[in-house]
Design a protein that fits this description.
- Belongs to the FAD-binding monooxygenase family.
- It comes from Neoroseomonas soli.
- One of its GO terms (molecular function) is monooxygenase activity.
- Its cofactor is FAD.
- The protein is 32% helix and 16% strand.
- It contains 17 helices and 20 strands.
- Strands 1, 2, 3, 4, 5, 6, 17 and 18 form an eight-stranded mixed sheet that branches. Strands 7-16-8-9-12 form a five-stranded parallel sheet, with helices on one face. The chain has a three-stranded antiparallel sheet with strand order 13-14-15, with no helix packed on it.
- The longest helix has 22 residues.
- The chain is globular.
- Bound molecules: 3-acetylpyridine adenine dinucleotide.
- 3-acetylpyridine adenine dinucleotide binds next to helix 6.
- The site of 3-acetylpyridine adenine dinucleotide has 24 residues, from helix 6.
Length: 543
């Protein structure tokens, strides 16, 4: 038995499969393994309820950037007919209600242990078992270990000098208190202007006495144009569920709209402006799909980037603030493009100010607030860290996973994540990583990517059991080929040009700079995974 398994006292509960996490991925994986394959399954979940991302991210303004009719499970027609979304983009509370509805509808809770954070997992080759430890001192064993921990669940709280001396309260958006935060009458500082900060700022500004936004990297944002859904649309989405499913399975990013086939160079500047205007008015992620070459051709991208910078200058009244907000150093959509409700308008309020950290970096946090390198001190009662996540690898590496012969995942991935299809790691038999690094995941509409991974894993385990196969793990040469292909796919786009993006791990000091998600497109990826399975799990060692 492995040292990790020995470390915790108490009896060990043995099941066929352990799933870590009860968000979209964990819930569906439990349903598939238990209700389709008849396996005994234990889900271990750190939170006190289902929801994953949507359980933890309760910050003001938290809302999904995928449209609600597409941000849902499509595996069950009854579920699709059962549930009705209220707004174009679902808010955090509504998504959490939806996932609770799913848990109830499929009777999932009885196999989920809440408040149970996994702290270690070790593979024992002699018994072909994974032994799992939890923070609460419980022990579990299973043949299959499936991580459904999400890509953006390990909070990145920057280690700014003096943080713990701050006399007020500080919060990270991804670990938001269940009871909420009362901003009324408070001087609030918010660090970070990614998707989260851009959603939170307008809502915080409504309540706070004053909001100071500390911006390090200026960002594009497109109005979401959120609104209640009409009865006609709700009916249409239900009546056309099968067609929507087909469409989302066939697009590059799993959204229910196609990327235009035309190039930005095929049209006149006036036509281009009209196309961008129409997409801007429509709102959301449609602008990224206006031309096929926005993400592959720098000159084409410049046309979109310039259009969006001009919109910031239209909205923001103070020219100096507009200049800081529109001084964006990366091509549009090479960092995850935020969408917003009134973000740039927020800077026209009297109680909002902007600090340009590129011009005056933070020196330290003091008991009274934030001190900048030029000696200016911003007095604050609350600091909000909208500073993102140790993405993709963080949630896995924080779990202390040890494969065959005690190989630590952290050692296997010292130079960056190495997976085959984002699904498995060499040396870690029967470990499956839903939306792991090397999969399209964060570049797509997540539930669509999750359904595909969960179904592939379920089919794979069914195959193993039918064929009497005890173990599956990728062959090292298949991993090498896949890692090279992931790099090649990223380099065929402009995505690596945003040198400070979390896609590259650049937001976490010391993290290897490797482009982590697979940029070759979800439709192509689905096809590859299906072909690999059809060829007898080509590239995997089965034994
Ligand atoms: O995090 P981010 P996020 N000092 O990493 C800044 C998803 N999401 O939570 O760019 C000062 O994007 C950092 O600056 P820089 C979505 O995929 C989805 O906003 O590193 N600033 C940046 O401005 C998204 O991409 C929805 O220079 C510091 C910000 O903090 C992902 O989550 C909604 C700093 C972090 O931006 C992460 O978004 C919301 C420091 N030390 C989020 N450290 C949906 O709708 C970091 N920053 C589904």
């Amino acid at each position: 038995m492995s040292p990790a398994a020995d470390a915790s006292p108490g009896p060990e509960t043995t099941v066929d499969a352990i799933i870590v996490g009860a968000g979209f991925a964990g819930l569906y994986q439990l349903h598939c393994l238990r209700d389709r394959l008849g396996l005994s399954v234990q889900v271990l979940e750190a939170g006190d309820g289902v929801g994953g991302t949507w359980y933890w991210n309760r910050y003001p303004g938290a809302r999904c950037d995928s449209e609600s009719h597409s941000y849902a499970f499509y595996f069950s027609d009854e579920l699709l007919q059962d549930w009705t979304w209220s707004e174009r983009y679902p808010g955090q509370a509504e998504i959490l209600r939806y996932l609770n509805h799913v848990a109830d509808r499929f009777d999932l809770r009885r196999d989920i242990r809440f408040g149970t954070r996994v702290t270690g997992a070790a593979y024992d080759a002699a018994t072909n078992r994974w032994h799992v430890r939890t923070e609460t001192g419980e022990r579990f064993a299973a043949t299959y270990l499936i991580t459904a921990v999400g890509c953006l669940s390990a909070a990145n709280v920057p280690d700014i000098a003096g943080r713990d001396d701050f006399a007020g309260r500080w919060y990270h958006t991804g670990l938001w208190p269940q009871e909420g935060v009362d901003f009324r009458g408070r001087r609030v500082g918010m660090i970070g202007t990614g998707s989260t900060g851009i959603q939170a700022a307008p809502v915080i500004a409504e309540a706070a006495a004053h909001l100071t936004v500390f911006q390090r990297t200026a960002n594009y944002s497109i109005p979401a144009r959120n609104a209640p859904l009409t009865e006609d649309f709700k009916r249409w989405a239900k009546d056309n569920a099968a067609e929507l499913r087909r469409l989302m399975h066939s697009t590059v990013n799993g959204h229910p709209h196609r990327i235009a086939e035309r190039s930005a160079h095929d049209v006149t500047p006036e036509e281009r402006e009209a196309i961008y205007r129409a997409a801007w008015e429509k709102g959301g992620l449609h602008l990224r799909a206006a031309f096929r070459d926005i993400l592959t051709d720098r000159a084409a991208n410049d046309t979109a980037s310039d259009f969006l910078r001009a919109r910031i200058r239209d909205v923001v009244k103070d020219p100096k603030t507009a200049e800081i907000l529109s001084n964006i150093d990366h091509p549009f959509a090479t960092k995850r493009p935020p969408i917003d409700t009134g973000y740039f308008e927020t800077f026209n309020r009297d109680n909002v100010s902007l600090v340009d950290l590129r011009a005056t970096p933070i020196e330290r946090i003091t008991p009274a607030g934030i001190l900048l390198r030029d000696g200016t001190e911003h007095a604050l009662d609350i600091i909000v860290f909208a500073t993102g996540f140790d993405a993709m690898t963080g949630p896995l590496l924080r779990m202390d996973i040890q494969g065959r012969d005690g190989l630590a995942l952290g050692d296997a991935w010292r130079a960056g994540p190495q997976t085959y299809l984002g699904l498995q790691v060499a040396g870690f038999p029967n470990l499956f990583t839903v939306t792991g690094p090397g999969s399209p995941s964060v570049l797509t509409n997540m539930p669509v990517a999750i359904e595909q991974h969960v179904e592939w894993i379920t089919d794979c385990i069914a195959h193993m059991r039918e064929q009497g196969i005890a173990r599956i793990e990728p062959r090292p040469e298949a991993v090498d080929r896949w890692v090279a292909h992931v790099n090649e796919a990223a380099n065929a786009t402009l995505l690596p040009q945003a040198g400070h993006s979390w896609y590259l791990g650049a937001n976490v000091p010391g993290k290897p700079r490797v482009f982590m998600p697979y940029a070759g497109g979800l439709a192509r990826y689905r096809k590859t995974c299906a072909e690999v399975a059809a060829r007898g799990y080509e590239g995997f060692a089965l034994g």
